[in-house]
Fold each of these.
Amino acid sequence: MADTNLMSIPGQVDPVPVARDITPRADGRVDLIGLPKDRIRELFEEAGLEPKQAKLRAKQVFHWLYHRGVIDFEAMTDIAKTMRPWLTERFVIGRPEVVEAQHSTDGTRKWLLKTADGHEFEMVFIPDADRGTLCVSSQVGCTLNCRFCHTGTMKLVRNLTPGEIVGQVMLARDALGEWPKGSMAGLDDAEDEGHYTSDGRLLTNIVMMGMGEPLYNFDNVKGALKLVMDGDGLALSKRRITLSTSGVVPMMDRCGEEIGVNLAVSLHAVTKEIRDEIVPLNKKYGIEELLEACAAYPGASNARRITFEYVMLKDKNDSDEHARELVRLLKQYKLPAKVNLIPFNPWPGAAYDTSTPERVKRFSDIVFEGGISAPVRTPRGRDIDAACGQLKTAAEKKSRAQRDREAAKAAEAAEAASV
Ligand code: SAH
Ligand code: SF4
């Protein structure tokens, strides 16, 4: 159970528990998933291998982990038989635990996952005719509390580690059967490469749009996405990855420079008054500052436009004037932009309603007439609470009374244990 060391993130007002990059399991073994190849090499050296051996073994193991998706050292057939138990004694190949898998009538799939120290989070797979998108979580809960977002009603429990983030992508490949010839196959290299580069994959795109604010977990998200983009890793192009932020201005430049993925910005409103209400982070980083940071986003161009997400809330942010102001702002800052209109996905207790389809259509038309593409996103997976903003884990849905009862019990148990 207790497999997470706690430390505080510098700069946060309240110390937030996060897992360290390496947290040995209860049995002392170290999970290799989420570590860069160099770190694996270091660990092999620390465990007693000669530097040259360590380098070679790290390269082989890395390939098995990310190209073949094996979850057992015994399956690594080009590693000497005697070496495999040595690895098994010291290391593990982790995956988040699947607590529940749900299927929507529209093909969307949602998984409730659990970290090794017992925290639940979710990931969603959305299949389309020409692509398959995995919506990945970056935190358990969120420190921000956008008024229309279900995740925003959860407290931040902790940041996910690089292993837990890249682990979601690996788990999706497991579930979709997208490793070359299954995850345990012992193939020779020629056969493998042929399979690996074959087209027709289901999982083609990744969006960092699950639970949490990815730019408040920058280092771990960066570490995980590096493994996803690494040609020797999961080898997915940065053009197929989009990171969504609610507007953490000071981290946007680093996101472009150091990660280099597509950017989506949760704008949602065009006046200070309304954005302050629905995205409270706006009080810290206002609309002008946010749009300036977008204009300076490294790598943005007409070929690689920034996506502006706009949730359609009835009688709140959906008037003709708002649509015209949106066009004006995007033009004023000369932004290579596209707008994604997201009809609000309701959840129990939400303070807003969804705009009518006619209103959404009219809003979209005005933005289109202004020369900016503004498609309406069809909600996916609403029947299983998998649509944007509906993610909130069951554990967190417990009533306050139930949580209080559990906390009291835990405190009692802790007291009993300490006597
Ligand atoms: N924290 C990041 C990424 C996760 S949220 C961010 O806020 O950008 C992913 C997207 O879903 C965001 O654009 C968010 O504003 C949107 N969203 C949240 N709640 C929603 C809801 N109830 N209906 C529709 N979209 C919602
Ligand atoms: Fe957090 Fe994004 Fe939800 Fe806002 S919309 S509360 S930033 S997950």
Note: The longest helix spans residues 400-418.
Amino acid sequence: MKAIRVHQFGGPEVLKLEEVPTPKPEAGQVLLRVRAVGVNPYDTYMRAGTYAIKPPLPYTPGSDAAGTVEAVGSGVTKVKPGDRVYTAKTLSGAYAEYALALEEQVHRLPDNVSFEQGAGVWVPYGTAFHAIHHFAKARSAETVLVHGASGGVGTASVQMARAMGMTVFGTAGTDKGLELVKREGAHQAFNHRNAGYQQEIMKASKDKGMDVILEMLANVNLGGDLKMLAQQGRVVVIGSRGDATITPRDLMSRRASVRAFTLWAAQPGETAEIHAGLYAGLENGTLRPVVGKQFPLAEAARAHQEILEPGASGQIILVP
Ligand code: NAP
């Protein structure tokens, strides 16, 4: 089979398309014929060797694949050959024509969800669910600012928060992104490249501030987020690419808190809640992964360049 292999950490050029043996599922394992692969920012940090988790070299990147079950090892009861599934991590890597996964890493994809959409489920929607339900403990009728709403996690968060009855504000950095954010359910959208947009957000909240802020770029925004929080407000840090400076009194005066997580560390009980919630939302159409740019598997390097560029618009997909 064809797979992307990384033999040394470095820039996008270290992603090489190679011919490798197709894996065979052992007991408790599932072999997936991959139809679409989700590209996520952490794939690029891992490839660069700057992520908390450094896989042994060589490796095949990717945790998010969607496709059909090709074969199962002994003892597997959850899925059978032909079933449509998405993965939440794999054993052999998602950037390939076939991927080997543990039975518990494979989840049924409702019939109304395409493979391209299925490749955008685990990291983006799992993160949105973990942030909204487990960390923000958000409730209907609260207000939420999705700070960075035009990308994978952002669009997922906007759809999820809207469906649960929150008032949703979202930000993007381009007109196309702002349109997307509104189309996916934000009541109001703001451009995070415009000077003074934080004042516009405060005005739109009638100067009460936000109950919840889901933050995609904490190194740039955390200090300002605290000034936009309502009493008892919560910032959930989802993404950050450097250090931040805050004024602790902004937290004290609001009895506010900052929480943060990595999806990798979600506990088994939480993971079960995430997948059950996502299946229900995908099935009833409140969660609709937005497929952005698509590239052939051989162009993984281009996908890695594009995902870090400004102007996000849905989930970037590789097609093997
Ligand atoms: P993505 O699809 O590349 O989207 C990035 C988002 O950040 C876009 O909406 C982008 O908007 C926005 N952005 C750019 N500049 C911004 C600014 N100054 N203020 C606010 N937002 C800004 O990435 P993603 O998959 O949604 O992930 C978002 C971040 O969360 C990444 O850093 C990722 O590594 C991290 N993440 C963390 C976890 C975890 O477990 N904690 C899980 C998943 C993702 P424009 O392009 O429109 O400007």
Note: Residues 268-284 form the longest helix (17 residues).
